[in-house]
Amino acid sequence: MKVVSSYLLFFQLLCILCIGTGFDAIDTMGIGNSDLHHVGVLYTAYTGYILITVVFLLNYCLEVTIPYRTSSLFSICGAGLFLTTGVLLLVDKSDYIRHYVSPATTLQQYMILVSVIISFATSAVFTIDSVLTFRRQEDF
Question: Where are the transmembrane segments (predicted)?
């Protein structure tokens, strides 16, 4: 149980770090004002996968098994969502730099960059998880 619970808590931490580093920067840079569909994808990925990992953790604690195909599917979807999130953040950051370069916003630009890096790292972790889960073919 220690390995699985720490593994799920690691996913939780990655999602929370994405929200924490991106929220203020997205708000300050005004990304939600012009690209609301980008913000919708961002927060859907972040909060959705926080909820999914909490449900997986509760199922594991209650000793309810989740089929390996379901777990792999969630991981594949998570990898895709976090990859899309990272790309959208890069696009929004480059658009912002092109139109509104100002030294006062360098902190927000670094926070967006950190959120992009964590999004890509989370996508890689979800990809590895889906491959290993499907290869082992063990229920969660």
Answer: 40-61, 73-91, 111-134
In Å, what is the CA distance from 51 to each residue of 48, 91, 101? Answer: 5, 27, 36
For residue 124, pLDDT over 80 is answered with: yes
Residue environment code for 68-98, b if the CB has 16+ CB neighbours within 10 A, otherwise e: beebbebbbbbbebbbbbbbbbeebbeebee
* Burial of 109 per CB tally in 10 Å (0-12, 13-18, 19+): middle
- Give the pair of three-digit tokens for residue 111: 């926070």
pLDDT higher than threshold 80 for residue 15? no
Q: pTM (2 decimals)?
A: 0.78
Whole-number CA gyration radius for the chain? 17
Q: How far is CA 120 from CA 71, 86, 124, 132, in A?
A: 20, 6, 6, 18
Short-list 95, 97, 82, CA closest to 41 = 82
